Structures are given as C-alpha cells and as structure tokens.
Structure prediction request, 78 residues.
Amino acid sequence: MVEQWFMMGIQKLVLLINLNQFWWLGHITLRPLSWWAQQWRSRFRLSQTVRRVEHLPLVYSNSGLYNQQWTLWEQVLL
Prediction:
C-alpha cells in the first residue's frame, strides 16, 4: 500500500490510525505510532499529529472514549 502511494506520486497523507489498546494481544493488527513510523520511514515521514480537527468528526475507539489523534505524513524525498 505504501509503495503504491509512493508510485502514484502522493506527497501528503492524513490518516487516522487506531492507537488504542495496541498492547492487548488480541489486537494483532494494532501497533503504536512509533511502529508505523518505522515501517514507512523509507517513503513517508510523520510530520505532525493532531488531536482535533474542527471539520472532522470524533472517532470512536475500542475503549469507549474518542480517539482524536490524526497523523499527517509527508513523502520522503530521495
């Protein structure tokens, strides 16, 4: 997926990555933000995290709270 974004010439991404309960073994696909940054480091770098974006809705989390953590990524120029 990341390689496809890169080949398509996408330079910036705004993503919501579920960062809740990644430590629980039952959630095998959830990882902390540092893990995502490490996986994508050759193509995209984390440029900013935003807890609340006015025009975007609150996002429900597994804990029953709202996860308001949006991640902004920029293409790594080679």
